[in-house]
UniProtKB/TrEMBL annotation:
GO terms for cellular component: cytosol. Belongs to the nucleoside phosphorylase PpnP family. This is Pyrimidine/purine nucleoside phosphorylase. The keyword Glycoprotein does not apply. Its EC number is 2.4.2.1, 2.4.2.2.
Amino acid sequence: MSENTSEFSNVSIVKAANVYFDGNVTSRTVKFADGSSKTLGIMLPGEYEFNTGAKELMEILSGDATIQLPGESSWQAVKGGESFEVAANSSFKIKANTVTDYCCSFIQ
């Protein structure tokens, strides 16, 4: 399975939505046969802070945002087609400037 694919095959999807920040961020969990999982989600414009358990790869599928990674004081621009990693057991801030479509992979 390539990270650059636009489609996943042979997966299970958890029906219940993950809803954060009063519904401004929502996602669905996708489970793979190898035990790994990802979430596919949408962020409405706004500023959010997320905590991580596992290391994460955040792919911005479409939209425009800025991020502040753990230990950084500056903000970085990210847009559709770009990605960033976040260390396990940390947190990051994101400002969605437009509706932002994302895929979050949990790296074990």
